[in-house]
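Page 37, continued from 36.
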C-alpha cells in the first residue's frame, strides 16, 4: 500500500476525529460563556442592588434633614440611615468587579459622595446641628447617585447582551461541530462499506479469473479429445453425447466466470426486453413475459444477464420436466426507494413445478450442489448469485413443495 493510499484510507478517521475535537471545544466554550453570563448576572445584581439601596437611603436622609431643620432636633431615623449609606457606599467601592460595570467617572462620583457624606452627614450624628449645610449638599448627592445607577444598568445590559451573543455563537458552533461529526461518521460508514464491497468484488473477480484460467485449457483439451471420437468406435455411444454436452456446459460456465471477472469492463449493454425476447425464442417450454414498460427499457450488461437468466430457465425447465401444463413466468418491474434515492429492477422468474423441500432450498446456492445427475455440473445458481453480486445486485429463491419456485433478481439501475 502506497503512502497516498494509506492517507486516503485514514482520511475519514482524521475527519471524524477533527469533528469530535471541534465538538468538544465548542461545548466547553459554550459552557464557559454560560458560566460567564451567570457570573455577570450575579455581579450585576449586586451592583444594582447596592446603588438602589444608596438612592433609597439618600431619599430618606433628605426627608429626615428637612424634619430636623424644621424642629431643630436630630430626627430619630437619621443616624441609622447615615450609617447604612456609609456602609453601602463603602462596600460598593470595595467590590473588585465594580469597574467592570461602572466607568471611571462613576467611581469618582462614588468617592466624592462618600467624602461629602462623611463631611456633612456624619457630624450630625455626632451632635452637630448644622442641618442647613447638609440640606444644601443633598441634591448634588442624589444627582451623583442617579448618574451612577443609570450607568450601572446600561453597562450591565451591554455586558449581558454580549454574553448572550457569545453563548449563542458558541452553541451554533457546537451544533455545527455536531453536524460535522455526524456527517464525518456517515462518510466513514459509507467509505468502509464501499471499501468492503470493493474488496469483496476483487476477491470474487480473482476467484473467477483463477478458476477460469485453471479450467479453460483442460476443458478445451477434453473437447478436442471428444471431437475425435465417433459413435462407431466408442463402447457406449450414448455417453459420448452426454460427455460432449457436459463439456459444452463447462465451457459456458468458464466463459461466464470470465465475464464475472471483467464485469466492470463490460461495455456491451442491451435492453432487458430484447434479452428476454431472445431467451423466449430459444426455449421449448412455455414462457410468459410480464414486463413493465420502464423495466423493459432498462439497459443491462448483455452477457451477464443472458447467462444468469438462461441458467435459471434451464433449472425451471428441468423442474417442469414433461409436464404439459408447465409454465414459466418472468415478471419485471421498477421499484423506487425514496429513502435511499435509488431505483431497482426487480425480475421474478416463477415456475409452477414441484418446488423444493426446505433442505434442498437451503443448499440451492451452494457451489457444485445439484439434484440432477448426468449432464448438469451443479454450479448454476451459485454462479448466478455471484454474477448478480458482481453487478451489485441480489438473488433470492423462494420455493415450497407443490407450489413451484420463484427466483428474484434485484439490480440497481
Amino acid at each position: 500500500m502506497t503512502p497516498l493510499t494509506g492517507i486516503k484510507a485514514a482520511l475519514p478517521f482524521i475527519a471524524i476525529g477533527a469533528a469530535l475535537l471541534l465538538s468538544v471545544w465548542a461545548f466547553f466554550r459554550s459552557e464557559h460563556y454560560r458560566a460567564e453570563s451567570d457570573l455577570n448576572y450575579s455581579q450585576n445584581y449586586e451592583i444594582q442592588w447596592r446603588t438602589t439601596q444608596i438612592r433609597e437611603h439618600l431619599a430618606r436622609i433628605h426627608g429626615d434633614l428637612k424634619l430636623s431643620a424644621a424642629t431643630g432636633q436630630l430626627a430619630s431615623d437619621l443616624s441609622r440611615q447615615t450609617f447604612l449609606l456609609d456602609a453601602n457606599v463603602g462596600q460598593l467601592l470595595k467590590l473588585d468587579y465594580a469597574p467592570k460595570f461602572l466607568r471611571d467617572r462613576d467611581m469618582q462620583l462614588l468617592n466624592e459622595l462618600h467624602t461629602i457624606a462623611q463631611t456633612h452627614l456624619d457630624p450630625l450624628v455626632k451632635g452637630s446641628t448644622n442641618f442647613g449645610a447638609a440640606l444644601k449638599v443633598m441634591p448634588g448627592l442624589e444627582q451623583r447617585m442617579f448618574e451612577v445607577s443609570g450607568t450601572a444598568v446600561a453597562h450591565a445590559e451591554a455586558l449581558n447582551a454580549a454574553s448572550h451573543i457569545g453563548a449563542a455563537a458558541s452553541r451554533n458552533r457546537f451544533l455545527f461541530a455536531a453536524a460535522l461529526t455526524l456527517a464525518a461518521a456517515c462518510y466513514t460508514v459509507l467509505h468502509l462499506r464501499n471499501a468492503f464491497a470493493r474488496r469483496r468484488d476483487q476477491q470474487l473477480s480473482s476467484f473467477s479469473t483463477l478458476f477460469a484460467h485453471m479450467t479453460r485449457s483442460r476443458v478445451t483439451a477434453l473437447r478436442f479429445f471428444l471431437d475425435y471420437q465417433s459413435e462407431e468406435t466408442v463402447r457406449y455411444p450414448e455417453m459420448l453425447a452426454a460427455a460432449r454436452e457436459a463439456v459444452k456446459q463447462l465451457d459456458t460456465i468458464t466463459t461466464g466466470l470470465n465475464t464475472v471477472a471483467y464485469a466492470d469492463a463490460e461495455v456491451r449493454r442491451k435492453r432487458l426486453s430484447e434479452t428476454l425476447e431472445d431467451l423466449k425464442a430459444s426455449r421449448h417450454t412455455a414462457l410468459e413475459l410480464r414486463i413493465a414498460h420502464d423495466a423493459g427499457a432498462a439497459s443491462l450488461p448483455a452477457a451477464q444477464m443472458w447467462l444468469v437468466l438462461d441458467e435459471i430457465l434451464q433449472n425451471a425447465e428441468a423442474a417442469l420436466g414433461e409436464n404439459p401444463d408447465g409454465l414459466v413466468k418472468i415478471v419485471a418491474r421498477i421499484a423506487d426507494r425514496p429513502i435511499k434515492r435509488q431505483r431497482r429492477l426487480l425480475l421474478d422468474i416463477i415456475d409452477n413445478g414441484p418446488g423444493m423441500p426446505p433442505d434442498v432450498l437451503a443448499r440451492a446456492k451452494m457451489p457444485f450442489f445439484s439434484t440432477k445427475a448426468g449432464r448438469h455440473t451443479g454450479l448454476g445458481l451459485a454462479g448466478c448469485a455471484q454474477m448478480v453480486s458482481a453487478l451489485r445486485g441480489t438473488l433470492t429463491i423462494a420455493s415450497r413443495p407443490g407450489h413451484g419456485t420463484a427466483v428474484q433478481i434485484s439490480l440497481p439501475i
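Confidence is low (pLDDT under 50) at residues 373-379. Flag for discussion at group meeting. The chain has two domains: 3-193, 268-412.
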